[in-house]
Design brief:
eight-stranded mixed beta sheet; mainly beta; 9% helix; disordered N terminus; disordered C terminus; six-stranded mixed beta sheet; Immunoglobulin-like; 4 helices; 55 strands
Length: 755
């Protein structure tokens, strides 16, 4: 019977709670309310103080259980609160409001109780309101232990994909007991919480197979709907290779079509990779290093790398690859890549090629040659244009027989074809033009101005293509011939060793390394104008018993000729008496400081009417002769004493010769006489006195005078005429004296006698 009664009462209580907030409890007159609040939180309890319109509140009292905690007596306007409950003034009310609230701050766990208020009015019966207050005590923040009981803070790992994670979540306290759940990200993976061996502790142990999606696992503990679940999380450090790698153009590009020469920014992004990977760019087999520093986002586990790419025509159909490698993962599963193929468009690249010329960009006159317009293009070329001297030859009628698309043919090259050639090709990307190719038509050397002489250099004026690099010279005079080879068209006369005193026939023949000159250049050249000018500043002097001529040197003269001219016997003309060459080293002197060095030469003797001449000379001949005649004063200074003639060389030679002849005759006569005396017996000398008459004595005196007289005629070696001079008796005083004959000799005159 008692058991039935308790079940019945519980059923009535449950029906009252579900059906209405206001219910009547046995023993209490008024409704019973249920409220929940969190520990340390605030709560407001309401008391129904609304009466009839004419009635007034006289008394308000709040009870916790059976103990009053607050009252208000309107009759005396006195408020009262329990000092035990109302610590720190956490209890307050607002009597002006209907219903009247009771504010309780900083709830404690022991504040959980049945609260009710009693209200009395002047007219209305006493009113009761009951409130069942439940205080929720939240559990502690969850914490983690690993499989061996070590506490885990913030992060666990590292692990590889596919490993099994074992972790335990624990919660201390909480009223009512909390429920513990595990989440992988936002996905509930375990809700099997249980009590642990430690009192007042709840736990939930998790076994989880790690996948690429496992990033953060969360443990939540909850025991009320008034507060969000209390949670803690731990990040799982999982080493991952990139799940995907993708290349993205930062500009709008269709079909990976790029234009050569433009710069493009491209990004490589690696997804779900940890830790930060190595990202490398490859263009075909070339490792590109001009990318910016890569970035890695630890939260999103993404890595990015940027590349500045400037494709060229060579990169057409090249592969651009971005390779992501995670060095923390063993080889084989640590890399991922994205590869794209580039379609590089560019303006046609054009080049002119020569075919069949045999020479680099050259052809011999009258030969055939061909030019080809070589093109690389994407997209294809649809038109070719040829240029000569920057003029479109496709539109020139004179060239119609030469142009065939990308080929230009010359059947017979002529000099007018020498010049720059180029071609252009057009496509949808634009027009590309080749650099000019200089085509040269070679021909043999030809005379232009022939041979010329300037200063002392002979020049050969020819033209050819290419310029001549070898010249053969043939120089011929009346009696001599010389061949000379030079690398230039100029030949100094210093190279010519034959005489150039007159004219010469000069021939030059040029070669240019390809062809030889067909018709040599020839000219007869006179060298007269290269001779020096005649001396202008010369003078005569008499020094050291001889005449001298001095001249200031003449430009271009290598030596001088000194001549002496004497009057003919008929006094009709000057005749060359002597001629000698005088070099610069023969004699030099200084007369005055202002005149400088002068050339001097010896002339010998000069007479009245004689002239001294000088001419400047070089290898090309002599100048005109400058004649100087000695003045009368100079001739007077040059006269010698009469006795000085004996010291003359010519006179001495003549006198010596005569003396030798006389000595020879006398010695011969003496020898003959001695021979005769040896054969004939000499008679006894007879002394005969002969008397001489006056006539005989006069004859002998005259004969003695004749023996003392002599005449001498000397011819100068340096003259063409004779000079005679009488020599007096006083000049012959040194001649031997003729003695009288011995007494036994009879003096007779005989025509054949030498005396």
């Amino acid at each position: 019977m008692g058991h039935r009664m308790s079940v019945f009462q519980a059923l009535i209580y449950f029906i009252l709670v579900l059906s209405s907030n206001y219910a009547f409890i046995i023993g209490i007159d008024g409704p019973l309310l249920h409220q929940e609040a969190l520990e340390d939180d605030n709560i407001t309890l309401y008391c129904d103080t609304s009466g009839i319109s004419d009635d007034e509140l006289s008394l308000l009292v709040w009870y916790k259980g059976d103990e009053s905690i607050y009252s208000y007596d309107a009759r005396s306007n006195i408020e009262w609160s329990s000092q035990t409950f109302n610590t720190s003034g956490r209890l307050s009310t607002d009597l002006s409001k209907r219903p009247t609230p009771l504010y309780i701050r900083s709830l404690r766990a022991d504040d959980e109780a049945l609260y009710h208020c009693r209200v009395e009015f002047l007219l209305t019966p006493t009113r009761y309101t009951g409130i069942n207050l439940t205080i929720i005590v939240l559990p502690s923040k969850p914490f983690f232990l690993d499989e061996i009981g070590n506490k885990i803070e913030n992060k666990i790992g590292p692990y590889f994909e596919g490993d099994t994670l074992m972790i335990n979540c624990l919660v201390i306290g909480g009223r009512p007991s909390p429920h513990i759940n595990w989440y992988n990200g936002k996905v509930l993976v375990d809700a099997s919480g249980s009590d642990s061996d430690i009192p007042n502790v709840r736990q939930n142990e998790l076994y989880l197979t790690l996948t690429r999606d496992t990033k953060r696992i969360t443990c939540e503990a909850t025991n009320t709907i008034l507060s969000a679940p209390i949670s803690s999380y731990v990040d799982v450090e999982l080493y991952l290779s990139a799940s995907n790698v993708s290349i993205h153009w930062l500009q709008e590009i269709k079909g990976n079509t790029l234009q050569a020469g433009n710069t493009y920014a491209v990004k490589c992004k690696a997804y779900e990779v940890h830790p930060s990977p190595d990202i490398a760019w490859w263009l075909n087999d070339n490792h590109l290093t001009q990318y910016s520093n890569q970035t890695w986002n630890n939260l999103t586990k993404t890595a990015e790398s940027y590349l500045q790419l400037t494709p060229t025509m060579k990169d057409d159909w090249a592969t651009l690859a971005c390779v992501t490698t995670n060095p923390a993962i063993p080889p084989g599963k640590n890399s991922k890549a994205d590869v794209i193929t580039l379609n590089v468009t560019y303006v046609p690249i054009v080049e002119v090629l020569t075919v069949g010329t045999g020479k680099l960009n050259g052809v011999i006159e009258n030969d055939t040659f061909r030019l080809i317009c070589e093109v690389k293009a994407n997209p294809r070329v649809d038109r070719f244009i040829w240029y000569f001297n920057n003029t479109n030859i496709n539109e020139n009628k004179d060239w119609h027989d030469y142009v065939f698309g990308n080929t230009l043919i010359f059947k017979k090259a002529m000099r007018r074809h020498t010049g720059p050639y180029s071609c252009s090709a057009k496509s949808s990307m634009g027009e590309g033009k080749a650099e000019d190719v200089e085509i040269t038509v070679f021909y043999s050397p030809e005379c232009t101005k022939g041979v010329s002489l300037r200063d002392e250099i002979i020049n050969c004026h020819v033209q050819s293509e290419p310029n001549p690099n070898l010249f053969k010279w043939h120089i011929r005079t009346d009696s001599e011939f010389q061949n000379i080879t030079t690398p230039s068209p100029s030949m100094p006369l210093s190279m010519v060793t034959i005489s150039l005193a007159k004219t010469a026939n000069v021939t030059c023949e040029a070669k240019n390394g390809i062809l030889k000159q067909r018709n040599p250049c020839t000219k007869i050249i006179s060298f007269k104008h290269l001779r020096p000018q005649a001396p202008r500043q010369c003078d005569l002097s008499y020094e050291s018993n001889q005449f001298l001529i001095h001249c200031i040197p003449v430009e271009n003269a290598t030596h001088y000729e000194i001549t002496v001219w004497r009057m003919s016997k008929s006094n009709a003309s000057l005749i060359l008496n002597s001629k000698s060459a005088l070099g610069f080293g023969a004699q030099t002197l200084i007369r005055n400081a202002d005149e400088g060095w002068r050339i001097g030469g010896l002339l010998g003797t000069l007479s009245d009417g004689d002239e001294a001449g000088t001419a400047a000379c070089n290898r090309y001949g002599s100048s005109e002769i400058l004649l100087l005649r000695p003045t009368e004063k100079l001739l007077n200074d040059a006269k010698l004493p009469w006795w000085y003639s004996f010291f003359d060389k010519d006179v001495g030679i003549i006198i010596g010769g005569v003396l030798l002849i006389v000595v020879f005759i006398i010695s011969t006569a003496i020898a003959v006489c001695a021979a005769r005396r040896s054969r004939i017996k000499q008679p006894v000398p007879v002394i005969q006195v002969v008397g001489m008459d006056d006539i005989t004595r006069e004859f002998l005196s005259s004969t003695r005078d004749l023996k003392a007289r002599s005449s001498c005629s000397l011819r100068s070696r340096s003259s063409d005429y004779l000079e005679t001079e009488e020599v007096g008796l006083t000049q012959w005083r040194h001649l031997p004296v003729i003695h009288d004959p011995p007494p036994d000799v009879t003096l007779t005159m005989h025509r054949e006698s030498a005396v």
